[in-house]
Amino acid sequence: MTRVMARAVSQRPFPRGRRVLILASVCVLGLVSCGLYYLQCHGRGCGPVSWDDVTGYDTRTVLPLLSKDVVVRSVYFDDRPRSGHVNASVFMVEARREIVDQGLIVGCQVGRGVAEFFQVRRLALIEVYVHWKHDYVNHDLVMVDCFDLPRARNGSRAFIFVKKANRGGHKGHKVYSVESERPLFFPAPRISRGNDIKLLVCVATARYTSYNRRLTVYSMIYHWLKYQRTIGVDHVHFIAHPSFVERGTLQNDVVRQDIQDGFLSVEFWEPWLNSTDNYHGHSQMLAYEDCVYKHRGTYDYIMMCDTDDFFMPRVPGQPRFQYYIRNWCHYGACRFHWIERYPDCGLDSDNVSPDGNITKMLRSATQQRLSDNKSLYKSSVVLDVGIHMPMESISGYSVIHVPSNVAYFAHVRHDHNPGIGGATC
């Protein structure tokens, strides 16, 4: 009897109220699924990606594009806020061909968290040129708006840039890239050579301006190269405008011999280094970033400076850079004082040893300014770099401030009236 009753209960239909509840739940789940599918398609570009999709400031539109359909074109760090923008790295990304055909190339300017975001994607790093100003010279780039990066830490913000492909711009200005195969944001291999420390110096120069003419007239660049050898530099990477060749600056026998010996390498960036404004504003930063990422894992330490900057060792009997790296810069980065000098004479002598002509001339010249803004970086830990200061790192580092009585950088200035300083070479 009990079994019959149990079978009857099990075969009894659901009460009407319960059936309505189940049906309503199924409908709600269906609507939610359709909504999620729509949002997913809207975000990942299942349909055509329009200009309005990007300018809608919708992270669902932009982030999937970055993760699926684009490759990173550049990284650049600027520590100076412009127009109220936060400090940020600039990532320029190039979209897949279908999006480019619609006139869209999406770029991203980001803060701390983006390193983690792009590291997961393992995207390749290539160079590109980025304009900051609203009255930009190249009308192809437009700043749209910013959004929060999901993996960003410490309240980092991200800006979105949109490039209208082939939509005008001044003649001679275009996005120009040099192919590269280096990885993005992965630590360089830890180099162990015992006491042998390999040091690279990166130099970025603008077009042939009055600054470059001074280099030629005073033969500073030739003596500067000789001087780098004497203080222990292993290699100099020169990023120059092609006008240097046209003007003969790189045709000197000393320069050609350094290139032949492998001490000097020269790379030409015509579109980026085509004006002094772009040079100081961001092209120089792009050049230094490029130099760092090309040589990480090959050189232990990397120094960014100009051909009118001279490293001045002050410890007696220790003229080479390696001594100062071991004692002050081995934690990751060190900052040197930068002293401007106004000598009364050019570098006419071949005596370019640290204790010779250059040192005497620089120490006797008028000291114009003292600032703590020349930095040396350990290549295995650096993430973002700048000409005057270290930025972020992958594994963390300590910044050591080297006292000026230990070593400093002398910035040689020849744009002055004769008679200032009373220096004798």
From TrEMBL:
GO terms for cellular component: cytoplasm; membrane. The keyword Oxidoreductase does not apply. Its main location: membrane. Its EC number is 2.4.1.-. Keywords: Glycosyltransferase, Membrane, Transferase, Transmembrane, Transmembrane helix. It comes from the Eukaryota. The chain crosses the membrane at residues 20-39. It is a single-pass membrane protein. One of its GO terms (molecular function) is glycosyltransferase activity. It is found in: Membrane. Belongs to the glycosyltransferase 92 family. This is Glycosyltransferase family 92 protein. It comes from Geodia barretti (Barrett's horny sponge).
